[in-house]
Design brief:
With about 425 residues, this protein is α+β, with helices and mostly antiparallel strands. The protein has helices at about 25-40, 45-65, 75, 115-135, 140-145, 150-160, 165-175, 180-185, 190-195, 240, 295-320, 330-335, 360-370, 390-400, 410-420; strands at about 175-180, 195-200, 210, 220-225, 230-235, 245-250, 260, 285-290, 290-295, 325-330, 340-345, 345-355, 380, 405.
Length: about 425
């Protein structure tokens, strides 16, 4: 597989640590642009509250860049849409924009947070949560607090108990539900009432129609073109876009929009196919927005997106292990680890699956936790994150962390090769 490269990623497989380390100033800027998106797309805000959010964002950026760099309100407004949307170039010190940051956008052309920008903020939030617990620092970013109720940890707490696996599977497989489906799934109130909310306005056409991604089923973003008649439709997760979740349609008066697939069909290799979780060739149909609720974006990204490869890997390992002494369990003991493979009472493989956009942040998490806090000894990343393996391996060796890192299809090949030992 040709791994998707972020803006500024070097054109080789080995990721250098210095290209993936971000300090607090960059994270503050990320939080400021997240506030800008909220100001534009949160339908519950009044006009005055929207201006207050933007002024708060301006204040965060001014405090971040320091007195040597003047950032006016007009400077900020110019970064909310168009070609320079969400860019730090020109308002941020050049020395802080090394590696991927120089070309990274925190907002897209219509002011919606990019997934790379979201992940930089949210993945870093997990790290600061860890170090806060160790009382190394008491300060938090404003937007970290804003997002805290939607973190992965809060989701898992809400479903702890005897039905944990069923609830977690349902969250992954049903990121959008109508009222009847939500009742049938039997989620705890904290899940059904807090984590499922109205479909975001930037995923709707005329506030009436939405389209589910052919990879993850989550509502795709609807982006108007300048002509006012044609629209692009994209999954918010970049890899799903790259594998085919990219469509367009032309608006017609009083008719249901019909999508047309763009010529970006990705064909996985034979080795990738068993664990492939990218877009299918299906062209989604428009669905009415009324009556539907979707997971908030943070929960979708932290639970559904990594959950798809977790479920697929567990299912494929289970099928491969049929007829051997091995048993495969997903999320044992309410998510002590992601997948555990046992020979009787003996643990053979204890697996943590991680889908991080920014490997430097994952490395920091591994260092702070001294590996996986649940005791997993294998770290598996999806195949489209293969370029992270070398860097994470070097960190683990340097820090003497007892884990082995592999891309998913490579781990499956290793697992299959070892099955003969357990016949």
């Amino acid at each position: 597989m040709v791994a998707r490269r972020l803006p500024g990623m070097p054109e080789h497989d080995e990721v250098h640590p210095e290209e993936w380390q971000f300090d607090e100033t960059v994270l503050r800027a990320a939080s400021a642009f997240a506030l800008c998106e909220e100001a534009r797309y949160n339908d519950g805000l009044s006009s005055g509250q929207r201006v207050e959010k933007l002024m708060e964002a301006q204040g965060v950026i001014m405090a971040t860049v320091g007195p040597r760099f003047r950032v006016t309100f007009r400077d900020l407004l110019n970064r909310l849409s168009g070609d320079q949307a969400g860019s730090l170039v020109g308002i941020f010190p050049d020395e802080a924009l090394a590696g991927p940051l120089r070309n990274l956008r925190f907002l897209d052309s219509v002011g919606v947070s990019t997934q790379e920008g979201c992940d930089l903020l949210w993945e870093a939030a997990e790290i600061f949560k860890i170090v806060d617990k160790k009382q190394r620092r008491g300060e938090r970013f404003t937007h970290f607090e804003l997002e805290s109720e939607f973190g992965q940890e809060q989701v898992f707490k809400a479903i702890k108990g005897g039905l944990y696996e069923r609830h977690r599977r349902n969250i992954i497989e049903y990121p959008v539900c109508d009222k009847e489906q939500l009742e049938e799934l039997g989620f705890p109130p904290a899940v059904a009432q807090v984590f499922y909310q109205d479909i975001p306005s930037y995923c709707l056409y005329k506030r009436q129609w939405w389209f589910g991604c052919p990879a993850c089923a989550y509502p795709m973003q609807v982006i108007p073109h300048d002509d006012g008649r044609t629209y692009a439709v994209r999954c918010l997760y970049p890899w799903h876009q790259d594998t085919g979740a990219r469509f367009s349609f032309t608006a017609t008066r009083d008719q249901v929009p019909v999508l047309h697939a763009e010529d970006r069909i990705y064909i996985p290799s034979k080795a990738e196919m068993p664990l492939y979780t990218g877009a299918s060739r299906e062209t989604p149909k428009a669905r009415p927005a009324e009556g539907y609720r979707a997971l908030v974006r943070r929960v979708w990204r932290s639970t559904c997106i990594p959950g798809l490869p977790e479920l697929r890997l567990a299912d494929v390992l289970t099928e491969a292990a049929a007829g051997t002494r091995l048993t495969v369990e997903i999320w044992p003991d309410n998510d002590r680890v992601d997948i555990e493979v046992k020979d009787g009472d003996t643990v053979v493989f204890s697996i943590d699956v991680k889908d991080y956009t920014w490997p430097g942040t994952l490395a920091k998490k591994l260092i702070e936790d001294r590996g996986d806090k649940g005791g997993a000894t294998w770290l598996v990343v999806p195949d489209h994150r293969r370029q992270q393996v070398g860097y994470l391996t070097s960190v683990i060796h340097r820090e003497r962390i007892g884990m082995t890192v592999m891309a998913a299809s490579d781990f499956l090949a290793l697992f299959t090769d070892r099955l003969k030992e357990y016949m």
